[in-house]
Specification:
This protein is α/β, with parallel strands linked by helices. The chain has a single domain, classed as Alpha-Beta Barrel (TIM Barrel), CATH 3.20.20. Helices cover 41% and strands 17% of the residues. An eight-stranded parallel beta barrel has the order 1-4-5-8-9-10-11-12, surrounded by nine helices. A two-stranded antiparallel sheet has the order 6-7. Helix 3 packs across helix 4 and helix 5 crosses helix 6. It binds the ligand NCc1[nH]cc(CCC(=O)O)c1CC(=O)O. The site of the ligand NCc1[nH]cc(CCC(=O)O)c1CC(=O)O has 12 residues, from helix 7. Belongs to the ALAD family.
Length: 335
């Protein structure tokens, strides 16, 4: 006599492998390690300044000296790299984002200090113009248009200035056409053959960036939206075509942004190109988890770990996450 479940399952039982902690550990397909983490950080002018960001509890803007200290801790925990974002003084912001080309601007100052004091941690810098423009757009605004080619020329120059300061990986997030090829050419012409490019290959026109804009002070400045250059959240195939151009133009690594709502894109990018793929768990994703956890509605630590593991399952090689140091601390405790 076989019971009814055996008749239905034909004696195949999925729960056998789930029966104990040790079986679950044996069959676990994906793991999150400290090597998967890139830590995005916000830099402000001054010394000994640490400013909390209200919509991102636990995340601070830091002056360069304090950033160096924080980077030391991250490096000691084994975090491979940082991605730096500057909150530029308002008086330095203008229509064309000209401060992006200054060798001694805040972002380059941070890179120099990091490379000098914490050389073991990778420094990834963005060349988008939004921290430097008076209108908060990622490119140069002429009339009502974010002009493509002029912006590309400028971000390619900014990439060289950032590489001169010691940046290890240039990460362009402004989604102009042709930027990856132009940046590669400019870097090579300046002798920076070893500086890599992590393309924000698929960056969507998302509502999840709100807290970031507060963090770098562009929230109140931005006129209109970024829909003429970021990808429509409705479009997956277009995103893959956009990434394909970046691959042809010489990107070394690809990024998907935001993260969790776009896991299908992560999966498709990994399948399509086989290049290293990173997801950016953006400010709004972080804020959601923190806010719900602070209300006692979810277990914040477990949700944090689950989201990061989901990126690995979707095929990502790593994740840019504001949780990086928190996660690294927890992973190191587990040994
Ligand atoms: N170049 C813009 C830029 N660089 C980083 C983020 C978002 C990061 C985040 O939300 O965590 C954005 C998006 C935007 O403001 O439109």
């Amino acid at each position: 006599m076989t019971n009814v479940v055996d008749q239905i399952t034909g004696h195949r039982r999925m729960r056998r492998n789930r029966k104990a902690d040790w079986t679950r550990r044996l069959v676990q397909e994906n793991r999150l390690t400290v090597d998967d983490l890139i830590w995005p950080v916000f830099v402000i002018p001054g010394t000994n300044v640490v400013e909390p960001i209200p919509s991102m509890p636990g995340v601070n803007r830091m002056s360069v000296d304090r950033l160096v200290e924080a980077a030391k801790e991250a490096a000691d925990l084994g975090v491979p790299a940082l991605a730096t974002f500057p909150n530029i003084e308002m008086r330095l912001r203008d229509e064309t984002g000209s401060n992006s080309l200054a060798a001694d601007n805040l972002i380059n100052e941070a890179t120099r200090a990091l490379k000098k004091h914490v050389p073991q941690i990778g420094v990834i810098t963005d060349v988008a113009l939004d921290p430097f423009t008076s209108h908060g757009h990622d490119g140069i605004l002429r009339g009502a248009e974010i002009v493509n080619d002029e912006t590309v020329e400028q971000v390619a120059k900014a990439a060289v200035v950032q590489a001169d300061a010691g940046s290890d990986i240039i990460s362009p997030s402004e989604m102009m056409d042709g930027r990856i090829g132009a940046i590669r050419q400019a870097l090579d012409a300046a002798g920076h053959q070893n500086v890599g490019i992590m393309s924000y290959a698929t960056k969507f026109a998302s509502a999840f960036y709100g807290p970031y804009r507060e963090a770098i002070g562009t929230g109140g400045l931005l006129k209109g939206d970024k829909k003429t250059y970021y990808i429509d959240p409705a479009n997956g195939t277009e995103a893959i075509r956009d990434a394909a151009l970046d691959v042809e133009e010489g990107a070394d690594m690809l990024m998907v942004k935001p993260g969790l709502p776009y896991l299908d894109i992560c999966f498709r990018m990994k399948e399509a190109f086989g290049l290293p793929v990173f997801a950016y768990q953006v400010s709004g994703e972080y804020a959601q988890i923190k806010a719900a956890a602070m209300n006692g509605w979810i277990d914040g630590d477990r949700v944090m770990m689950e989201t990061l593991l989901a990126f690995k399952r979707a095929g990502c090689d790593g994740i840019l996450t504001y949780f990086a140091v928190e996660v690294a601390r927890q992973l190191s405790k587990k040994g």
